[in-house]
TrEMBL record:
Keywords: Activator, Repeat, Transcription, Transcription regulation
Annotated Gene3D superfamilies: Mannitol-specific EII, Chain A, PRD domain, Winged helix-like DNA-binding domain superfamily/Winged helix DNA-binding domain
PRD domain segment(s): 177-279, 282-389
Protein known as: Transcription antiterminator
Stretches assigned to the PTS EIIA type-2 domain: 493-631
Signal sequence coordinates: none
Keyword Transmembrane: no
KW Transcription regulation (keyword) present: yes
Source organism: Peptacetobacter hominis
Pfam hit, one: HTH_11
A GO biological process held by the record: regulation of DNA-templated transcription
C-alpha cells in the first residue's frame, strides 16, 4: 500500500497545471527533495507503471491516462498559494454550518500552523469591509459570525474578483485549447458572419466562441453525437453560417465536417428560436423546469440572480439537452478544462457543482467533472455579463394610485433603462422596507428626510425635462464615485512599491526606459520582447507630454502581470519635445485591457490639475505618492 504522503503527492501533481519540481513538492509537504524522489519511486513501483513521469530539467508530471486506467481516486482540490487558501477558508466559513478545525486544516492543505495563522489574518483583512462579519477563534477552531446579507455580499465580491475579465476575454478562453488557435478560428467566424451580414451581440460573442471551441474539440477527438432537428433548420441563415464556418474549420485543421455539430451550433446562434427546430427525446418543458430549479437554487444559496439572463438559459438548455443524450448513449466529454476551471475559478466551479447535483437528482444521470466544468463556463460568462451591465438599483416613492404613477415610471424607464432599474415602488417611506431592497438610489415625488446613506432625488409626478436633468446629474455623480472606487482598488494593485523610484538622476529617456524595463524582466513581470516593443513604440513617437511627464509603453507585447513602474527624477530629462520629471512605465496584460481606460481617465485628470501634478513631483516616498494618487 502507498502511505498518505504518497497519496498527497498524487493529488498535488493531479492539481498542478503542468510540471512541478521536487523542491516545489517538498516545500508544500514540508519534507526533503530526497523524500519526494523516494516517494515517487515507491508510487510507480506500487502501480507497476510510470504514474508519475520525471524529467531532470522540468520536474514531475502526472500521467492522467494511467490515473484513469488504474482507477485512482483523486481527492479534493488542494490550494497551493496563500491567496488560494484564503478563498478556500472563506468559502468553508460561508457555507459550512460547522467550525473549521485548524489542526485538520493544516493536514488537508499541507502547511504549518504559522502559515494558517497568516492566512487567517488575511481573511480578517478581507472581511473588514463587512461590519457585521467576525472571525471567532476558540482554541483550534474558527467560525464566521454575522448577517446573512453581509455573507452574501462577501461571496459576490470574491466571485467578482475571481471572474473579472476572464470569461468575457477571448484570449483567456482560447488558452483552454492547445490543439488549435481559437483566435484564428474566431477570425474565420467573423468573416463568415460579415459575408452573410449576420450580427452577433458583443455580450454573447465570447460564449459562442467557447461553444465553437468545445465543438472543435469534440470533432478532433471523434466524440460527438447525433442531433435530431427539423429539416427546416437547413433553410435558416444560422445553419448556412454554421455550415460554412465548420467547412472552413475543416480545411484549416484537417478535420471532418460533422453534420450534428453544424446543427448544434446553428441552434445556439438562433437563441430563443431554437426550440422550434430541436427534436428532443426529453421534454422541452422538463428541461426548462430543470433550468428554473437550478437558477432558483443559485439565487437562494449564493444570492445571485440569473433568472433574467436569457442567454444563460438558452446555453444551459442546449447543453443540458446534449448532456442527457450523452448520458443515454454513454458518451463521455473530453476533459479539457479541469486544470483551468477548477483551480482558477473555484467559486464558479462550486456554483456548477450545485447545478450538477440538481441535474443528477432530477434525471438520475451522474454528471462527471468534465460536464461540471462546461456548466462552470456558462455560469462564469453569465456572472461577468451581470457585472458588465450592472445597473443602479432604484426604489421610487409615489404616494398616488397606479394610474397616476405609471406614466411617471414609464418615462423614467424609457430614458434611463440602460443605467438603472426601478426595483420597487412604495407609497410611503419606511427605512426598514427600503433597506430590504438594498437600493443605490431613491427617487421620490414628495419631500423625504432620512438618515440612510443613499442618494435621493425629488422629482415632479408629471416628469419634466428638469426632472430628467436631476436624475441624469445624479447618475453621472454616482458613475464618478463608482469609477473612483474601482480606480482606487485597481491603482493600489498596479503601482507596486518595489517598482517605485524617487530622487533619481539619469541623462536620457533611453537610459530610463532601459533601467525600468530591465527591472521588470529581472523581477519576472516581463521578458526581453516587452522591452524591445517599448523602444519600438518610442521610436514611432515620443510618449512625453507637455506637462512634464512620460508614459512609455509597448505596442503589442504585454507583460506577464499588469503593473506600473514609477520614477520621479531630481532634474528634468529631455524626452522628445518636452522636459520630463515623472516617468510612468505602463505594463498591461492582454486580459486586463479594460484597465487602460481607467488608467488614462485618471491620467487626464492629473494633467489638467497643476496642483495635483506638483504634489506628485514633490513626494519623497511611495506612501506619500499613493496618498496623493488615490485621494
Amino acid at each position: 500500500m502507498i502511505n498518505n504522503r504518497q497519496m498527497n503527492i498524487i493529488n498535488i501533481l493531479s492539481d498542478a497545471d503542468g510540471r512541478m519540481t521536487g523542491k516545489e513538492i517538498a516545500r508544500i509537504l514540508n519534507v526533503t527533495d530526497r523524500t519526494v524522489r523516494s516517494d515517487i519511486d515507491a508510487i510507480n513501483k506500487y502501480y507497476e507503471c510510470q504514474i508519475i513521469v520525471s524529467n531532470k530539467r522540468t520536474g514531475y508530471r502526472i500521467d492522467s491516462t494511467l490515473i484513469a486506467k488504474k482507477d485512482i481516486e483523486i481527492k479534493e482540490m488542494i490550494p497551493q498559494t496563500s491567496d488560494e487558501r484564503c478563498i478556500w477558508i472563506i468559502h468553508d466559513l460561508l457555507f459550512s454550518d460547522k467550525e473549521i478545525n485548524l489542526i485538520k486544516l493544516q493536514e488537508r492543505v499541507f502547511v504549518s500552523g504559522y502559515s494558517i495563522d497568516n492566512d487567517i489574518k488575511k481573511v480578517r483583512n478581507i472581511i473588514e469591509a463587512y461590519p457585521s462579519l467576525k472571525i471567532i477563534r476558540s482554541k483550534n477552531h474558527i467560525r464566521l459570525e454575522g448577517d446573512e446579507a453581509d455573507k452574501r455580499k462577501l461571496y459576490k465580491y470574491l466571485l467578482t474578483q475571481e471572474t473579472q475579465g476572464n470569461f468575457m476575454n477571448l484570449n483567456s478562453i482560447a488558452n483552454f485549447w492547445n490543439d488549435f488557435d481559437l483566435i484564428k478560428i474566431k477570425d474565420e467566424f467573423v468573416d463568415v458572419c460579415d459575408k452573410y451580414d449576420y450580427k452577433i451581440r458583443e455580450t454573447v460573442f465570447p460564449m459562442i466562441m467557447m461553444h465553437a471551441g468545445v465543438a472543435i474539440e469534440r470533432i478532433i477527438n471523434k466524440n460527438y453525437q447525433k442531433c435530431e432537428t427539423d429539416e427546416k433548420l437547413k433553410e435558416s441563415t444560422e445553419y448556412i453560417v454554421s455550415e460554412e464556418f465548420f467547412r472552413r474549420v475543416s480545411k484549416i485543421l484537417n478535420v471532418e465536417v460533422v453534420e450534428s455539430e453544424i446543427e448544434l451550433f446553428a441552434l445556439l446562434l438562433m437563441g430563443k428560436g431554437a426550440s422550434d427546430y430541436r427534436k428532443l427525446k426529453s421534454s422541452k418543458e422538463e428541461i426548462k423546469n430543470l433550468i428554473a430549479e437550478i437558477l432558483d437554487n443559485l439565487s437562494e444559496y449564493f444570492g445571485i440572480e440569473f433568472s433574467k439572463d436569457w442567454d444563460l438559459k438558452i446555453g444551459l438548455e442546449t447543453h443540458i439537452a446534449s448532456l442527457i443524450e450523452r448520458q443515454k448513449n454513454n458518451i463521455k466529454v473530453t476533459d479539457i478544462y479541469l486544470k483551468e476551471i477548477k483551480r482558477k475559478y473555484p467559486l464558479v466551479f462550486d456554483m456548477a457543482i450545485h447545478a450538477a447535483n440538481i441535474i443528477e437528482e432530477r434525471t438520475g444521470y451522474k454528471v462527471d467533472e468534465a460536464e461540471i466544468e462546461f456548466l462552470a463556463l456558462h455560469l462564469g460568462s453569465a456572472y461577468e455579463r451581470i457585472n458588465s451591465h450592472q445597473k443602479y438599483r432604484c426604489v421610487i416613492i409615489i404616494p398616488h394610485n397606479q394610474m397616476l404613477s405609471k406614466p411617471c415610471i414609464d418615462r423614467i424607464n424609457s430614458r434611463f433603462d440602460d443605467r438603472m432599474e426601478i426595483i420597487k415602488r412604495f407609497s410611503f417611506f419606511e427605512e426598514k422596507q427600503i433597506m430590504e431592497y438594498e437600493p443605490n438610489i431613491i427617487i421620490t415625488t414628495v419631500p423625504v428626510k432620512h438618515s440612510l446613506d443613499i442618494p435621493t432625488v425629488q422629482i415632479n409626478l408629471f416628469f419634466s425635462h428638469e426632472d430628467e436633468s436631476k436624475i441624469f446629474q445624479l447618475l453621472e455623480k454616482m458613475d464618478k464615485r463608482r469609477y473612483q472606487d474601482d480606480f482606487t482598488t485597481l491603482i493600489k494593485k498596479l503601482i507596486k512599491k518595489e517598482l517605485f523610484h524617487v530622487n533619481e538622476s539619469y541623462e536620457s529617456s533611453a537610459e530610463i526606459i532601459e533601467v525600468l524595463c530591465d527591472e521588470l524582466i529581472e523581477k519576472g513581470f516581463a521578458d526581453k520582447s516587452y522591452k524591445e516593443d517599448v523602444f519600438k513604440r518610442e521610436d514611432v513617437s515620443a510618449t512625453s507630454f507637455l506637462y512634464g511627464f512620460a508614459v512609455p509603453h509597448s505596442i503589442k507585447v504585454s507583460t506577464k502581470e499588469s503593473c506600473i513602474s514609477t520614477m520621479i527624477l531630481d532634474k528634468p530629462v529631455k524626452w522628445g519635445d518636452f522636459e520630463v520629471r515623472l516617468v510612468i512605465l505602463l505594463g498591461i496584460r492582454e486580459k486586463d485591457n479594460r484597465l487602460l481606460k481607467i488608467f488614462f481617465d485618471w491620467l487626464s485628470n492629473i494633467v489638467t490639475d497643476s496642483k495635483k501634478l506638483n504634489q506628485l513631483l514633490s513626494v519623497n516616498s511611495y506612501e506619500e505618492y499613493m496618498k496623493f494618487v488615490v485621494e
